[in-house]
Automatic annotation (TrEMBL), chain A:
The keyword ATP-binding applies. Keywords: ATP-binding, Nucleotide-binding, Transport. This is ABC transporter ATP-binding protein. CDD domains: ABC_DR_subfamily_A. PANTHER family: ABC TRANSPORTER ATP-BINDING PROTEIN ALBC-RELATED (PTHR42939:SF1). Belongs to the ABC transporter superfamily. Residues 6-230 form the ABC transporter domain.
TrEMBL record, chain B:
Pfam families: ABC2_membrane_2. The keyword Transmembrane applies. Coiled coil: none annotated. GO terms for molecular function: ABC-type transporter activity. The keyword Acetylation does not apply. Keywords: Membrane, Transmembrane, Transmembrane helix. This is ABC transporter permease subunit. GO terms for cellular component: plasma membrane. The chain crosses the membrane at residues 21-40, 52-76, 106-130, 142-163, 175-198, 250-271.
């Protein structure tokens, strides 16, 4: 068993009585891509700041590659992109990257290469003040990729980005994870995380309510799969009856089925033969799963 | 460690150049000092004192007002501005200690201030020498003025960092800086003067007053420069004070250095406590 990149054990943090982080424990391994989800104020940023050593936890322990958070050793191996960052507007993108490369003790010559990787090579010599929001975000991401960090913390790395740039961000995340770097990112845009993260952590009111990969979380949530069967208007009644009811509208029949019932139901639809024109299978999205866990946690409290 | 300090300092200088901060400060200092040199000392022409020296005496009084203001304007944003913009989070997540960070900022700002002082005052000195009204002794006075102005600037840079790490918003820090300038540079003198006028021969005037002048960096700066000119009688102003001092005027220089060091140390302690 290799040493975990980040180990968080029973960590608590409260601000004047309000519990921002409440007995959170998890452990991240090298090369994992983990999404940290949670509503606004769920404690995501607080958790990041605890891991970086900017805040002291009230209880519990955090270790970054065996070192204390905020120690020189921990910071040497960690890269961080804050949620909103405004670089000095009068400097160029390249100058900003060279600055951070020097602070991290890396060669500034790699700056151009990094700018290329985030698609900012053409804008390298322009002032950051002229950058669009997406370009500034990508510059921040380039900053987090300087050197060879073993733990990368990204606070909402895709906020304000267009779909193509988002795609690029996830490609980059995939690349660095393949080199053995652990990437922990927080996000609001849940659906885009599907197939791009290995694991999902869900925070709700400071408590960790879920920690697993997405398909297993789906199973745990037990959310139904929604099926929509298209047919000819004259066959509607027959189709509806043989599939055990459901909502009938115009040319289709809609009904839910449990995840473990999916194959049996699909073969029942298949058995209808020519009566069926088309089938839509809508698995619960990450949004649905997230809402399930988040709501369940709030009901408990 | 050194490379990280130099990196932060270099960034501050670069920003100072890009924002035309250096240019602006140098122009302000040049305009005021030229005005003083060419117009203000015109009546002193018959006194037989080096014109450069007379100008230095006027500039010392100018520096007391301008240099702290420029230093505070450079420094007030240093911590809370970076907190607001989120860059402090990012910078401090790099392996740089907060002491190195602040020292780098201070070094950068000191160099920015030095460029402005050398360019602004240097222009005036150069012009006076070209006009044939300067001597070597006058130039030494000029160099001393620039060097001590830089030291005065460092004192107020440190005050700026202190206020910047105590406040959460850069607007609040700006207001606090203006207030600090007003108190240390203007009101402090007025209060001392008022007390002196109210009781010119009491224990206050002889025992307390000289030391009250010594511990304020702005006053200590003026005291040292005017005393060092040796031409106090001709220049007027603090003449009576410097001769009646119960200590060596060099102590004023030590006081400036101590003020800068203590205030900077205090701001390092405060920056360590910040959770960005």
């Amino acid at each position: 068993m290799t040493q975990p990149t980040l180990k968080v054990q029973d960590v608590c943090k409260s601000f004047s009585g309000y519990k921002a982080v409440d007995r959170v424990s998890f452990s991240l391994s090298p090369g994992e891509r983990i999404a940290l989800l949670g509503h606004n104020g769920a404690g995501k940023t607080t958790l990041f700041k605890l891991v970086l050593g900017f805040l002291k936890s009230d209880g519990g322990g955090i270790s970054v590659l065996g070192a204390a958070p905020g120690s020189h050793e921990a910071r040497r191996n960690t890269a961080y992109l804050p949620e909103s960052v405004a670089f000095p507007a009068s400097l160029t993108g390249k100058e900003v990257l060279v600055f951070y490369a020097r602070l991290k003790g890396e060669k500034p010559s790699g700056a151009m290469d990094l700018l290329e990787r985030v698609g900012l090579a053409d804008a390298a010599k322009r002032r950051v003040g002229t950058y669009s929001k997406g370009m500034r975000q990508r510059l921040g991401l380039a900053q987090a990729l300087i050197g060879h960090p073993r733990l990368v913390l990204l606070d909402e790395p895709t906020s304000g980005l267009d779909p193509v740039s988002r795609q690029n961000v996830y490609e980059l995340i995939g690349e660095i994870a393949n080199r053995g770097t652990t990437v922990l990112l927080s996000s609001h845009a849940l659906t885009e995380l599907e197939a791009r993260t290995d694991r999902v952590l869900i925070l709700s009111k400071g408590r960790l309510v879920a920690d697993d990969d997405l398909s297993r979380l789906r199973t745990q949530a037990g959310l139904p799969i929604r099926l929509k069967v298209w047919t000819r208007p004259e066959d509607l009644a027959q189709v509806s009856e043989s599939l055990g009811g459901g909502r009938v509208n115009g040319r289709s029949v809609e009904f839910d089925c449990r995840a473990d019932d999916k194959i049996r139901t699909l073969s029942a639809i298949g058995a209808l033969g020519d009566l069926v024109e088309d089938v839509d299978v809508h698995a619960p999205s990450l949004d649905d799963v997230y809402r399930h866990f988040s709501n369940a946690a709030q009901k408990e409290t | 460690m050194l490379s990280r300090i130099l990196t932060v300092a270099g960034q501050e200088i670069r920003i100072g150049i890009r924002n035309r901060w250096i240019l602006l400060a140098a122009v302000i200092l040049a305009v005021f000092s030229l005005a003083l040199a060419l117009l203000g000392s015109a009546p002193a022409g018959t006194l037989g004192v080096d014109r450069l020296t007379i100008t230095v005496a006027s500039l010392a009084s100018l520096s007391v007002y301008l240099v702290p203001l420029i230093a505070l304007l450079l420094a007030f944003d240093a911590i809370c501005g970076e907190v607001e913009r989120g860059t402090l989070l990012m910078t401090l997540s790099c392996p740089i200690s907060r002491f190195e960070f602040l020292l780098g900022k201070a070094a950068g700002h000191t160099l920015v201030l030095s460029f402005a002082l050398v360019a602004g005052y240097g222009l005036t000195a150069g012009l006076l020498v070209l006009l044939g009204s300067g001597s070597v002794a006058g130039l030494t006075d000029f160099l001393r003025l620039i060097a001590t102005s830089i030291l005065l600037g460092i004192c107020f840079l440190a005050v700026g960092y202190l206020l910047s790490s105590l406040t959460r918003q850069s607007r609040t820090a700006a207001a606090a800086s203006i207030a600090a300038w007003l108190v240390l540079v203007v009101l402090y003198d007025l209060a001392l003067l008022g007390a002196l006028v109210a009781n010119p021969s009491g224990a206050f005037a002889s025992e307390f007053f000289p030391y009250a002048v010594l511990i304020n960096p702005a006053d200590a700066f003026r005291l040292f420069n005017l005393a060092a000119l040796g031409a106090s009688d001709l220049v007027g102003g603090m003449a009576g004070v410097t001769e009646a001092l119960p200590f060596d005027p060099a102590l004023a220089l030590a006081s400036l250095a101590a003020f800068a060091a203590l205030t900077f140390a205090a701001s390092v302690l405060l920056v360590r406590r910040i959770a960005p």
